[in-house]
Amino acid sequence: MRTTQPRLRLLHFFSRTDGHFTPEEIAERFRLAGEPIPIATLYQNLRVFSDHGLIGEVIGHGGELRYDANLTPHSHLRCNRCGVLMDVMLSLPDLQPLGPGQDWQITGARVELQGICPACQEAFPIPVL
Ligand SMILES: [Zn+2]
Ligand SMILES: [Zn+2]
User: Fold this and answer.
1) Ligand with smallest separation from the Cα of 61
2) Count of structural domains, the chain
């Protein structure tokens, strides 16, 4: 992989975050920092990073593709109200599929849990029926 200024800046960005960002959100951060990167360059470099396993991909609340700097195996908690994504570790004792797939050797799992984050619970309490 060639080393270019935008790539170095992007690597630096990902080394200092644990969030999950769309290309537009990353572009906005660089713009606000006074160091804009053209969106086309950003799209292209994010794809290259992802293809090289330097960043992960996760689908966000609205079906949008987000990039994930956390490369350790982890699962996600996603809020159904505000869409916030959080990295979590799950202890999953037995993930062997029942029925089709049961003859596979399972080597890992990535689970997406959905729920309501604490901030949203406070803002919009669910009435207890
Ligand atoms: Zn929320
Ligand atoms: Zn993540």
Assistant:
1) 1
2) 2
Instruction: Look at residue 128 and tell me if it is in a domain.
Output: no
Q: What is the Å distance from ligand 2's center to 54 Cα?
A: 13
Is residue 9 domain-shared with residue 64, that is, in the same domain? yes
Ligand 2 centroid distance, CA of 68 (Å): 5
The residue with tokens 């599929």 is 97
pLDDT digits (tens, 9 = 90+) for 38-72: 999 999 999 999 999 999 999 888 889 999 999 88
> What SS3 state is found at 30?
helix
| Residue 94 located in a structural domain | yes
Given a contact cutoff of 8 angstroms between Cβ atoms, the answer to whether 116 and 77 are in contact is no
Tell me which ligand sits closest to the C-alpha of residue 75. Answer: 2
Q: How far is the CA of 129 from the centre of ligand 2 (A)?
A: 34
Which structural domain range is residue 108 located in? 75-123
